[in-house]
Design brief:
It comes from Paenibacillus validus. This protein is α+β, with helices and mostly antiparallel strands. The protein folds into two domains: about 200 residues, FAD/NAD(P)-binding domain, CATH 3.50.50; about 120 residues, D-Amino Acid Oxidase, Chain A, domain 2 (2-Layer Sandwich), CATH 3.30.9.10. About 35% of the residues lie in helices and about 25% in strands. It contains twelve helices and 20 strands. Strand 10 and strand 11 form a beta hairpin.
């Protein structure tokens, strides 16, 4: 099998890249270890930056997003029993917070790729990368996990296969430098069959820990609780979850959280991670293969979208004009934005979560930070600009 760009992973990064290349007349083949049903059925959060929304519309894959997504003009920071609204729309010159779940983005992109005749091999196994430091890299895999070994010969490989995929280890350890922070807490997330308790997201800092209220649809809500990193979901009955949510979200003006049947729950660990470089020979990493952010800043999918825009532009320049300037600078361009997003995600995480090892002094500093970002227009503007997404820079 021969193609111009071999893409490993059918998550947001791989699918966005493949469709961007298609629109520029560049061939690609995607391989994915999970089935189509698995990638479309894995329910994950999705707060989209304005730039990601604009990209999907420009690509022609944003019709359902614009119809079914939730467009918010702000969000709330809640602490000391009081809510403080950050008006993102006003502070950023008319931009919106768009809530549209990641699995819905994936559904839209898979449908677009298949409708355009794109090649996606689902449920593959034994994926390996070869000759990535030559001009003729190759990907080998087994269709349907145990089929006969096949090979994709390509000009370039895009590793969009997540943190545990085979792409990043294909960069020699002597070349790779990895930065990581593991947080001492996790998120317990639940999906609830109930009407919205709030029309905008609520990020709550409470003595007992962080909580988040997010909308999925008029009938389904997504709620989160901070729990210990070593906690287990079996320790959390529905009654205990609701009790903690009510406690952490209560306000002096009597806010009422609407309950409903919990039909999904799980615990997600929290880490920050960056790989440098994001390229080696003809291999380029994008999305979670190269970086991880804690979900507090809502940057994961958006960083993946930013990566592949840079990569797609670099590949376009190579195939149309023989230029490799952008490809050569791929790591430099991407990491400049990634580190800013890592900083913001760390800032939001440390500002909103309770570290039970903090001294009373450190707790006082945390509350002062929240008071400052919600009372100073300059601080609120900085918060809003980072939340809605910094501009692309080449």
């Amino acid at each position: 099998m021969r193609t111009q760009v071999g893409i490993i992973g059918a998550g947001p990064a791989g699918l966005l890249l493949s469709h961007l290349l298609y629109l520029q007349g560049i061939e690609s083949v995607i391989i994915e270890s999970r089935t189509r049903e698995e990638i479309e059925g894995t329910i994950r959060a999705g707060v989209l930056e304005q730039g990601t929304v604009d990209l999907m519309n420009q690509m022609g894959v944003g019709v359902r997003m614009m119809k079914e997504g939730h467009f918010h003009e702000g969000f709330e920071l809640r602490f000391n029993g009081t809510g403080h609204r950050v008006n993102v729309h006003e502070l950023t010159g008319g931009k919106y917070v768009t809530v549209y779940a990641q699995h819905e983005v994936i559904k839209d992109l898979v449908a677009a790729r298949l409708q355009a005749g794109g090649q996606i091999y689902f449920n593959v196994g034994d994926v390996s990368l070869h000759d990535v430091d030559t001009s003729a890299p190759k990907i080998r895999f087994r269709p349907n996990k145990d089929g006969e070994l096949q090979e994709i010969a390509c000009d370039y490989i895009a590793g969009c296969d997540g943190f545990h995929g085979p792409s990043r280890p294909a960069i020699p350890q002597s070349v790779r430098k990895e930065y990581q922070k593991i947080y001492p807490f996790s998120w317990l997330g639940v999906l609830v069959e109930a009407p919205p308790s709030s029309h905008e997201l609520i990020y709550a800092n409470h003595e007992q820990g962080f909580a988040l209220v997010s909308t999925r649809s008029p009938q389904i809500q997504r709620l989160y609780l901070q729990v210990d990193a070593k906690d287990h979901i079996d320790n959390w009955s529905d009654d205990r979850i609701w009790s903690e949510l009510h406690t952490r979200l209560e306000t002096k003006d009597g806010f009422k959280l609407i309950e409903g049947p919990i039909f999904q729950k799980g615990i997600v660990s929290m880490r920050s991670f960056v790989c440098d470089p994001m390229q080696y020979g003809r291999l380029f990493l994008a999305g979670d293969a190269a970086h991880i952010v804690p979900p507090t800043g809502a940057k994961g999918l958006n960083l993946a979208a930013a990566d592949v825009q840079v990569l797609a532009r670099g590949l376009e320049a190579f195939y149309k004009a023989g230029k490799t300037d952008i490809l050569n600078r791929y790591t430099e361009i991407c990491l400049r934005r990634i580190w800013k997003a890592e900083r913001f995600s760390w800032f939001m995480t440390t500002m909103l979560h309770r570290d039970m090892g903090h001294t009373p002094f450190e707790r006082g500093i945390q509350l002062a930070e929240l008071d400052y970002v919600t009372s100073s227009r300059a601080a609120s503007t900085s918060l809003a600009e980072n939340y809605i997404g910094l501009p692309m820079e080449f």
